[in-house]
Amino acid sequence: MLEPIHGSPIIIDRLTKTFGTTRALDEISLSFPNGGITALLGSNGAGKTSLINCALGLEQPSSGSITVLGGKAGKIDIKRRIGVMLQDSDLPDQLTAREHISLFSTYYEKPHDINALLTLCELDGFADTRYKKLSGGQKRRVQFALAIVGRPQLVFLDEPTTGLDIDARRVLWNTIRDLREQGTSVVLTTHYLEEADTLADHIIVMNAGKIIANAASADIRAAVSGAVIRCQTSLNENHLAALTGVQTVQTSGRFIEILTNSGTQTLRELLSLDDLVTELTVTKPTLENAFKRLTSNG
Ligand SMILES: Nc1ncnc2c1ncn2[C@@H]1O[C@H](COP(=O)(O)OP(=O)(O)OP(=O)(O)O)[C@@H](O)[C@H]1O
């Protein structure tokens, strides 16, 4: 187990980051939970990467402050206690996975044993292959191994599984869960809501540079009561949005998905207006439904 962190690993106070006229972060204040996996969610351009970059000291705040592991973001003694896997991580092509990990391990006081880490990240089969010959998924695993080789207390994973197939994604999910068991606080950004649903203990949702939700995953899901009706219908989105209880309506391929807080009534009205409804299912709302409702402007 790691030496425990005292208090919140990331404390943000009225943090603003502007790029020209764009307010990437708009006076946000929050404290990240200590331990567990926190998913940072938001649509493209919401401000997630800007927030992570400020936490890593890669960007300086325009105003406000951000404290990481009790110190100033970006200071070397803080960096040594943090692991990072960014979206675009370029590594020298000629080194093997084992050589990359050996090199990185020299930066840290108490690194992981290299063979144990190769096994943990399921890299045994290609540990001695040059980086350039690895597949996209294998490269992501090497990048992940580098993020955790120093046994960090806090890890940032920025879209760690983008582009991975479902098997590779599951391998990484298990390794992320192992990190949590060892006491590491994990901050994860992802566009796969299924991933956040599966992994996260806590969820922070950003929109246009602001925090619009910050709660335990179970509470975020519970806040969306009611039902999700999915079907094929000849009624259009505007017509459906006017039915009793309807919160959001979304077309997905041939299907319409309706989030309603009054499932029975909505269903009655739908069937009375269109008796040719087909492929009808009614399910409980998911994190994806909660996310859509939080980020819809309505
Ligand atoms: N270096 C930069 N120069 C100018 N504008 C920037 C810069 N970095 C970010 N922005 C702008 O700040 C806003 C927030 O961007 P950011 O990358 O933080 O969003 P994000 O939530 O990470 O998006 P994505 O999910 O697409 O990665 C966007 O409008 C973006 O165009």
Short description:
With 298 residues, the protein is of the alpha/beta class.
Protein described:
- This protein is α/β, with parallel strands linked by helices and 298 residues long.
- It folds into two domains: 10-217, P-loop containing nucleotide triphosphate hydrolases (Rossmann fold); 224-296, Alpha-Beta Plaits, CATH 3.30.70.
- The chain is built from eleven helices and 14 strands.
- It has a six-stranded mixed sheet with strand order 6-7-8-3-9-10, with helices on both faces. It has a four-stranded antiparallel sheet with strand order 2-1-4-5, covered by helices on one side.
- A hairpin with a 2-residue loop joins β12 (246-252) and β13 (255-260).
- α3 packs parallel to α5 and α5 packs parallel to α6.
- The chain is globular, with a radius of gyration of 22 Å.
- The site of adenosine-5'-triphosphate has 11 residues, from β2 and α1.
- It comes from Arenicella xantha.
- GO terms for molecular function: ATP binding; ATP hydrolysis activity.
- InterPro entries: AAA+_ATPase, ABC_transporter-like_ATP-bd, ABC_transporter-like_CS, ABC_transporter_ATP-binding, P-loop_NTPase.
- This is ABC-2 type transport system ATP-binding protein.
- Keywords: ATP-binding, Nucleotide-binding, Transport.
Helix fraction? 25-40%
Q: List the bound ligands.
A: adenosine-5'-triphosphate
CATH architecture of the largest domain: 3-Layer(aba) Sandwich
DSSP strand content: 25-35%
Tally of separate helices: 11
Q: Rounded to an integer, what's the Rg over CA atoms? A: 22 Å
Major sheet size, sense and barrel closure: 6 strands, mixed
State the total count of DSSP E strands. Answer: 14
Instruction: Spell out the CATH superfamily of the largest domain.
Output: P-loop containing nucleotide triphosphate hydrolases
